[in-house]
Amino acid sequence: MQLRKATERDVDDYIEIEKSIGKTKLYSQTLTHEEAIEELSKTEVFFIVEEDRIVGQIAYEMKGKNHAYLSGICIKPDFQNRNLASQALKEILEMLKGVEIIDLVIHPENIKSIKLVESFGFVKAERVENYFGDGEPRVRYILKKQF
Length: 147
What we know:
- The protein is α+β, with helices and mostly antiparallel strands.
- About 30% of the residues lie in helices and about 35% in strands.
- It contains 4 helices and 7 strands, in the order βααβββαβαββ.
- The protein has a 7-stranded mixed beta sheet, sandwiched between helices.
C-alpha cells in the first residue's frame, strides 16, 4: 500500500471512489464535479494505491498552523477488510506528527470507523446533530496526544 497525492486532474478517479460506497448515511459523499474540485483544492487528498490500483482515498485539511481536520477515509468495497484504512491513517498521522490538534467526525453508527480511530488514540469529544446539513448526527473525535 502506498499513498499518492491527488490533484485536480484526478477528479474523475476521486468521484469514482466516492460513488463506490453507494448512498449511505454513514459517509457523506462528494459526488459532483464541482464538489470534487472544491475538495481537491482545499484539502490534501491522497489516493490509497495497492498494486498500481487506486483502491481508496484519505484526506485532511489544515484548519490552522497546529490544527488538522481529517476530512475523509474511503476504501472501495472490494478492497475493504484488508487493513488499508489503518495503514493509510498511520501514514497520514506520521505526516501530521508535529500538529497539536487532529480531529475528525464520524457518524455514530459507523462502528468500524470508530474502532479504527480509537485504536490510534482518538477520543470522543462531542456529538453534533445535523453536522453536514443532511439530518444526520456526527461525533467529533480528537487525537489524544502524548506529551
